[in-house]
Amino acid sequence: MENLTPVFRVVLFFFLCVLCLVPFVWLADMNVLPPAQSELLADMSSELCIVLATLGGLMMMFQLFPFLDFYAVFIRGKAAFAGALKGTLLGGLAVTVCSVALYVSGLVVFKPQNILPLIFALYVVYYLLIALTEEFLFRSFVLLAFAERYALWFACLFNGLLFMLVHAANPNVSPIGLANIFLVGMLFCIYTLQKQNIFWAVGIHFGWNLVQGLVFGYHVSGITVPGILQASPQGLSYLSGGSFGMEGSLLCTALLICWLAWLVIRKGWGIVEISDPKLLEELMVEEDDLQKKINQD
User: What is the CA radius of gyration of the chain?
Assistant: First the structure.
């Protein structure tokens, strides 16, 4: 039963996040707030509400479990900007490398597009909100809860599966696309655990979506967005990515596997600072028992 504790706590966390989202839904249903002037502004409003609801859910968890705080769930102000900036550069570079490989292979062609500066700026904010929403939701308490109790590789794998499942209903979804979302979810977990700061994952997530959509004009996880260029896939969809975008390509799969392997070989799966005093006590008892057994032998 103790091994199921993280599952119960994660379910509780999601429930509290939904509970904190209810007032925003109520305000929208009652037409208290002025209607959004465009679909993009409506999407931005939704993402902002989810970010605030997630923060509300986290603070309620902090009240229920006093040993938790923002520091414990990797949301750390120290070096946050630097980590996010470096992560953004990494995410953008990875997309660029994959895009160049697709272009050289003849699997995509790019055509220049006109995008209004205001639309560009709004999408920058939108992608930042998406990165904050999804990372705070999946790579904060959810990651900690499993990383404390289980092996780090299992915590990353489970987190990646959750991340994949919430994208399963995206437009034009493909098996390869889902597999790549699973891999990128694991990637965000490893960076969070290795750096002990969620803002590296926020930055990589932001840079990944920003360069993929706004610069190269791919569909982002199947969703059509405007960009400086427009990517037109050529040939077999499982190589080019098809209508799901770059994330639907086997070349993207190869990139992510190499990236993950390099991270794990270089620094392992990361580390976790155990916050739960009950779990710490259990580990100390197990360590004492093991030491006694060694002494007896």
Answer: 21
Task: Report the pLDDT value the prediction gives residue 1, as an integer from 0 to 100.
Answer: 45
Give phi and psi for 108, each to the nearest 5.
-155, 145
Q: Are 77 and 45 in contact (CB under 8 A)?
A: no
pLDDT per residue as tens digits for the range 51-97: 999 999 999 999 999 999 999 999 998 899 999 999 999 999 999 99
How far is Cα 254 from Cα 236, in angstroms, rounded to an integer?
16
State mean pLDDT over 167-191.
Answer: 96
User: Two tokens at 154?
Assistant: 């299992």
pTM (2 d.p.): 0.92
d(CA 297, CA 281): 24
pLDDT tens across 89-145, in order? 999 999 999 999 999 999 999 999 999 999 999 999 999 999 999 999 999 999 999
C-beta separation of 80 from 197 below 8 A: yes
pLDDT in tens, 242-254: 999 999 999 999 9
Measured between alpha carbons, how far is 232 from 249 in angstroms, rounded to an integer?
Answer: 13
> Residue 24: how many CB atoms within 10 A of its CB?
17
